[in-house]
Amino acid sequence: MAAVLRALLVLQAAFALTATLGMVALMAFDPAYAVVPALAATALFALAALLPRRWALWTVLGLEGVALCGVWLQQVAALLPQLGSTVNLTALLTTIALPAVVLALTLRLLAAR
Question: CB within 8 A of 104, min separation 6: which ones?
Fold first, then answer.
């Protein structure tokens, strides 16, 4: 189960790096927009490497909880007429399904300890 969780964290970090490249391309190739997403991807890679440690599991739990709360807040903000949100299969898989599965696996690993 830890190997699956590690693979999902690496996959999530790879998605974050791909999204970072797309964001930098859309923002006139300004590298300032890549700082925070690159740090988040680096943190996910580091957590995947340090996964057997208990504090790493708790950190993954916190990060995925924040990610899921962020999606919820984005959808609440999209209720305003000035803001909008596009919901498609890719967004559902990468922002809801993947963090939810990682969260569930992390909780299962913590319960097993």
Answer: none
